[in-house]
Amino acid sequence: QVQLVESGGGLVQAGGSLRLSCAASGRTFSSVAMGWFRQAPGKEREFVAAINWSGGSTDYTDSVKGRFTISRDNSKNTVYLQMNSLKAEDTALYYCASCWKRWDSPLTRAETDYGYWGQGTQVTVSS
Fold first, then answer.
1. What percent of the chain has pLDDT over 90?
2. Three-state DSSP class for 96?
3. Which of the residue ranges 19-28, 60-69, 80-89 would you say has the lowest mean pLDDT?
4. How far apart are CA 15 and CA 122, in angstroms?
């Protein structure tokens, strides 16, 4: 079993910054890829960013590239999403998720490749 708990969401003005954290439990954390997804009201959940087991490879959706940074600290069983230059369209419920694919598989954006999900943390950007 893997449990993921997001934190760090809140209300921020456009142009501001926020750092989300995802604390994970489970013996396999250090050997799995992790991802961040988000879902705004009335919209489908979308991929935001992913990071491989070691943190050496990352992937971002185009809309956040250059503004968001995903990172991880395996000693703390935690993955982070640093969000800078926030825009109103970044407003969403943000989820972290654990990828079930082999550690040496390419990073994936597909929700079906992620088996464990956190409860989500709300990010609201005012304009």
1. 89
2. strand
3. 19-28
4. 17
